[in-house]
Structures are given as structure tokens and as C-alpha cells.
Amino acid sequence: MSPRRTQRGAALLTAMIIVTLIASLAAGMVWQQYRAVQIEAADRARAQSAWILQGALDWARLILQEDARQNRSKAVDHLGEPWAVPLAEARLSTFLATDRTAATDDEGPDAFLSGTIEDAQARYNLRALVGGTQVPALEQRVLERLCSQVNAPPGTAAVIITGLRAAFPAPASGASAPASAPATLSESGPLQPAGLDQLAWLGLDADTLKRLEPYVVLLPKATPVNLNTAPREVIAALFDGVDLASAERLVQSRKAKPLQNTGDAAPFLPPNTEIGTGRASVDSSFFIVTGRLRLDERQLQQRSLIERQGLNMVVLARERINQLLDRGATP
């Protein structure tokens, strides 16, 4: 082979290598630019979603504040009030469009908002199981009845009681702590759960927590159960000798006429049923606000715990869950 032909082959090979390197660098730059655009779009969507959900939370606080104003003379909370009406999923595209008159179904992001306000005191508060030197026998029976009603595994009530009392130990002096007093930290026990979902730290599985969720709650302090909003299962478990049929009669009656005081529940319960002071009420101070924003194939859910202190709505806890929806499934 002549030297001239060898030089031509080497030059061609060098040119091919250079073209390959340039193409690889260009592809890498395009990919980095694409990723940067995707990250920026995701950050923008996350920020927009957070602002929308914050607006929904503020709207819920205004509703609860207005309800407090109307009930200033006599505090009664029931499921016939505006706060108890859920917000059905509504499309936000027309509101997010720059020109509302020109907005169509194909313009703007596919954003849908829905939400609910739930009475946290419609559920049995597990805080009643801690704070003293011993578990009150009545409160233990209440939890055992609830666990039985939801078909929880045997021994679930004992696991909850043991775990909670280890996480929230009684004061060293042996005296019962006030309901409003801050919880005592445990140096050797499990972490103190802040909500029902964190009871998994105590050894409960996800299925058991899902079964208990509609009926129990863990609030920062002891609270009575609101008989105007509690489901029949909670009412039946709350008092000794009350069955589901009696609780159902109370639930059906309050739809037509909400209870004005705890004594109004007596005609619907078995004779001699003791409605203890501090264990039942007809008003509430704690509410759970849930907002859901569906944006394209993603759904962002925010759950907030609100304590109503007069006309002041205090957000005690907030949790956000980002979910990737199945495009073929109907949300």
C-alpha cells in the first residue's frame, strides 16, 4: 500500500472520530438542556401546586372561622353545617388562563381541585389512653370494642396501649398530667407518634391502620367525642352497654335535629347509660382539612390538622403526599 493511500485512510479515520466526538458532545448538551427544562417545569408545577393548596387551606380556615362566629352564642357543630360539605373536584383551567374569555378545554393545564373538612373529634382520641399512672379501664374497653368492630388482629388494642404508654410515659411524680400539658419525652421508649399513620412505629401493619383510620385519631391533647359527627361505631364503643342499633338511632335522629347538648342523646341510648363529662360533647375544636390537586398525571394531596381557638385557626400539622397517577385509571 502506498504512503499516499495510507495517509488518506488515517485522515478519514481521524475525521470520523472527530465527527463522533462532536455528535456525542452535542447529544450530551441537548440531553442536559432537556433535563434542565424538565426540572424547571417540575419545580414550577410544584410551586404552583403548593400555592393552590395553601389557598385551599386558607379558604377552609375562613369557613371554620365563620362557623365559629355563627356559633358564638352556643357552640354546636354538626354535619349539616357548611364546613361539612365536601368540595367536589373542579377544573381550574379557566381560572388559571390569562384570558378567561378565550379559555377553552384545550388551553391551560389540566388542574383539578377537591377537598374536605372533617371533624377530628368525630373519632376516638387515643390520647385518652396516656397521661396517668394506669390506663383507665373504660378507655381500654373502648379501644378493644373499636378494634373488634373493624376486625383488627387479636391483641391490637394491647399493642397500641403498650406502645403509646412507652412513648408517652407518665410523669415521674406519679401524678396525672393535665390534658393540655406537653407530653413527657421518653429516653428509652419508641419515638412519639404525631399522627395515626405513625402508629406503624409501634408494630401495627398498614392494613390494621387502614381499618382503624375512620374511627380513631391521635390529637395533641385529650378531647371529647362529638356526638353530632361521630359514626355509629365510635358512639357504640364509647359507652358501656350501647350496641350499634342504639347508636344508629342516634345517628339518624341527629340528621333531622342536631343535638344541642349531650343530654339530648339520652333518649336514644339504653337506660342508665353514663355520658361522662369530658368524654362526649356536641362541639369540636380540631378539624382535618384535606386538599387534593390533580395536575396532568400527578396528584398532590395535603392534609392539615387545625385547632380552632375562638376565632383563631391554628395549623398544628401539615403533610403533603405526591402521587403519580395511572394514565389508564380514572381518578
From TrEMBL:
T2SS protein K first SAM-like domain residues: 122-221
Family membership noted in the UniProt record: Belongs to the GSP K family.
The organism of origin for this protein: Pelomonas caseinilytica
Main location, first listed in the record: membrane
Annotated coiled-coil segments of the chain: none
Cytoplasm is among the record's keywords: no
T2SS protein K second SAM-like domain mapped to chain residues: 225-265
Protein name per Swiss-Prot or TrEMBL: Type II secretion system protein K
Matching NCBIfam families: T2SS_GspK
UniProt key word Aminoacyl-tRNA synthetase: no
Cell compartment(s), UniProt: Cell inner membrane
Alphabetical UniProt keywords: Cell inner membrane, Cell membrane, Membrane, Transport
